[in-house]
Write a structure and sequence with these properties.
The chain is an alpha/beta fold. 35% of the residues lie in helices and 22% in strands. Helix 1 packs parallel to helix 6. Bound molecules: 5-O-phosphono-beta-D-ribofuranosylamine (GRF).
């Protein structure tokens, strides 16, 4: 008989939450559990999903705080109430400041829709196509001060098809993301991810 999930993961979102859903669905078979969900966007579909699933969920709306530091203080309080071992950014659209990043250093993860270090930032699929990239994919990395620049933990890649458009590429990469993020957390829970 197993001891049940051992790694508590808090998921931080801004939008539709398909990665949240993949993490939650795969958590049921794994060694990690979703401790709760925090969104900076009160209207995020990800929050509706969390509520329907009975997950602790709340919004910390960045627009009501006068400074980034105040917003991030409130975000940290909401996260600390969940006592997570790991914080997984999943479609979180704000850049985090140094104090926040340092507070969770080594246990703050992000998923990014490109094979970093190629195409940090936004609009990665269009940029990959415009650059004529032959391979593309997704990266899970530790968050540091450098936007999309922290140590890489794992990547999943695909070959860009001749004449492929942005929509298909995005859908194919998203499907990879939905496998990659749960895979990383499962490995993390088993103590198989080494971070420095
Ligand atoms: C994903 O492509 C993720 O890599 C990026 O934003 C998107 C979020 O999608 N950071 P979802 O909200 O998980 O559906």
């Amino acid at each position: 008989m197993g001891l049940g999930p051992s790694l508590k993961v808090a998921v931080v979102v801004s939008g539709r939450g398909t990665n949240l859903r993949a993490l939650h669905e795969k958590a049921s078979k794994g060694n990690y559990s979703i401790a709760g969900v925090v969104s900076n966007n009160p209207m995020a579909p990800a929050l509706d999903y969390a509520s329907r699933q009975g997950l602790p969920a709340c919004a910390v709306d960045h627009r009501v705080y006068a400074t980034r530091a105040l917003f991030e203080g409130a975000l940290a309080e909401a996260l600390d109430r969940l006592s997570p071992d790991v914080i997984a950014l999943a479609g979180f659209l704000r850049v985090l400041g140094t104090d926040f990043v340092r507070r969770y250093q080594g246990r703050l993860l992000n998923i990014h829709p490109s094979l970093l270090p190629s195409f940090p930032g936004l609009d990665t699929h269009r940029r990959a196509l415009e650059a004529g990239a032959r391979e593309h994919g997704a990266t899970v990395h530790l968050v540091t001060d450098a936007v999309d620049g922290g140590p890489i933990i794992a990547q999943a890649g695909l070959r860009v098809a001749p004449g492929e458009d942005v929509a298909t590429l995005e859908a194919r990469v998203l499907a990879l993301e939905h496998e990659l993020y749960p895979y990383v957390l499962e490995r993390w829970a088993r103590g198989e991810v080494v971070t420095h």
